[in-house]
């Protein structure tokens, strides 16, 4: 089965903020609504709506089929959508899409809530909560719950060492597979036909983005609560925030993205583009809208989901005994700004500095056919949500449209 990437694409915001928005012949022009205007008495520059529409207009070199975006700056909101360049159809600004790893902050929120309830301790080990899950002959040091969430566990990457080469047609077919947390854990830690992987580094000494840690976190949520992830995320996050258009995967089934949806395409071996909206995925796989993801990040930052002590975890980068942020290893994340090469993930979120001195916190996501992201400043005055449907292999690079979108936010 082809799954979402172990390493998220890094949204090169610092670069994007200095980019100019060049002219190009659009395949299908983007549209945008007006939204509310600036807050009364606010002197800060407003949104350049023309630049935003141009930013999300799909260009031939983008490898993108369609784009959705919602941005907010200083009390002013803009929402836009490009057309589906494959079919020529317009897209609804309320279209749904697959959010990939944006579900990880929701997993973290659930465990932070459980810690506030006294049902889990962030600095207690996985070995205590899930005895026998980590093979004792390979994992001799304790791995804490916090280390799962802030990517400092040193655990293997999911399916580490498994053969990676499959044909496009096999990838497209395997998207329908549904894989439980238990199956991911077993296939990673106790694989058949290849050596079992050990730690990548000593827990708490480095940071490396690690999706497998969140599969263990998902298993921990279900073990502690006795409920499925779908049940917990719905009761603890979606319903309290009124995220009515967001759905978690139905356990054990492959399901389509509810209509209206943003199409995402993969190229078959004969060059035919296949709409891959129907997928199985993982228990934490979800579909959403730009409006609902904006609701999520607002509720996350304004205290509706977490108590102050747990909210503080969202904005704290892991540090070593010397009080300095841990080094970041393995990949292209955490590679911008003056702290380049050091940890840029907190519990749940990613830290991204901008050239004007402000900082964005948020998360990107990638599923077959889809890429998305949600970011905001801590005061919520600047927020951006985007989603793209691909028109071919998605890879791991930052979508050009996301870079243009953030560039447009700083166009004035």
List keywords for this structure.
globular; 3-stranded antiparallel beta sheet; alpha+beta; 412 residues; 7-stranded antiparallel beta sheet
How would you describe the overall organization of this protein?
The chain contains 12 helices and 12 strands. It has 412 residues and is α+β, with helices and mostly antiparallel strands. The strands form 3 sheets. A 7-stranded antiparallel β-sheet has the order 1-3-2-12-11-10-9, with helices on both faces. A hairpin with a 5-residue loop joins β11 and β12. The chain is globular, with a radius of gyration of 21 Å. The protein starts with 12 loop residues before the first helix and ends with a helix. The N terminus is likely disordered.
Strand content: 5-15%
Query: How would you classify the helix and strand content by structural class?
Result: alpha+beta
- The shape, in one word, is globular
Output mean pLDDT.
Answer: 88
Distance between the termini: 45 Å
Series of H and E elements = HEHEEEHHHHHHHEEEEHHEEEEH
- What gyration radius follows from the Cα positions, in whole Å? 21 Å
Task: Indicate the percent of residues in helices.
Answer: 25-40%
The largest sheet, given as strand count, sense and whether it forms a barrel, is:
7 strands, antiparallel
Adjacency order of strands in the biggest sheet = 1-3-2-12-11-10-9
Number of E-type strands: 12
Q: Count every helix, treating DSSP H or I runs of 4 or more residues as helices.
A: 12
Low-confidence stretches: 1-27, 37-44
């Amino acid at each position: 089965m082809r799954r979402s990437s172990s390493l998220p694409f890094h949204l090169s915001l610092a670069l994007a903020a200095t980019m100019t928005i060049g002219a190009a012949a659009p395949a299908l022009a983007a549209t945008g609504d007006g939204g509310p205007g600036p807050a009364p008495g606010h002197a800060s520059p407003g949104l350049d709506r023309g630049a935003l529409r141009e930013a999300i207009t799909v260009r031939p070199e983008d490898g993108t089929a369609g784009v959705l975006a919602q941005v907010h700056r200083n009390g002013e909101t803009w929402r836009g959508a490009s057309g589906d360049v494959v079919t020529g159809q317009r897209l609804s600004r309320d279209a749904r899409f697959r959010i990939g790893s944006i579900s990880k902050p929701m997993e973290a929120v659930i465990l932070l809530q459980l810690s506030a309830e006294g049902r889990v301790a962030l600095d207690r080990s996985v070995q205590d909560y899930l005895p026998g899950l980590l093979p004792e002959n390979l994992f001799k040091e304790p791995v804490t719950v916090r280390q799962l969430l802030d990517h400092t566990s040193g655990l293997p990457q999911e399916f580490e060492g498994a053969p990676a080469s499959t044909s496009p047609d096999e990838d497209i077919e395997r998207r329908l597979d549904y894989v439980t947390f238990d199956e991911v854990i077993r296939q990673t830690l106790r694989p058949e036909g290849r050596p079992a992987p050990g730690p990548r580094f000593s827990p708490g000494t480095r940071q490396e983005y690690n999706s497998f840690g969140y599969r263990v976190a998902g298993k921990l949520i279900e073990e502690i609560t006795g409920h499925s992830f779908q049940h917990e995320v719905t009761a603890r996050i979606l319903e309290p925030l009124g995220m009515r258009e967001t759905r978690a995967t139905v356990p054990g089934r492959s399901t389509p993205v509810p209509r209206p949806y943003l199409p995402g395409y993969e190229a078959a071996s004969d060059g035919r583009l296949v709409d891959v909206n129907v997928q199985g995925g993982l228990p934490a796989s979800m579909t959403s809208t730009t409006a609902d993801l904006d609701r999520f990040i607002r509720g996350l930052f304004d205290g509706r989901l977490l108590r102050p002590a747990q909210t503080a975890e969202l904005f704290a980068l892991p540090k070593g005994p010397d009080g300095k942020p841990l080094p970041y290893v393995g990949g292209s994340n955490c590679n911008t700004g003056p702290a380049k090469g050091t940890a840029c993930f907190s519990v749940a979120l990613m830290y991204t500095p901008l050239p004007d001195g402000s900082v964005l916190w948020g998360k990107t996501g990638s599923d077959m056919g889809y890429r998305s992201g949600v970011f905001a400043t801590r005061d919520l005055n600047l927020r951006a949500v985007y989603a793209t449907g691909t028109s071919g292999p998605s890879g791991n690079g930052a979508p050009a449209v996301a870079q243009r979108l953030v560039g447009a936010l700083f166009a004035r």
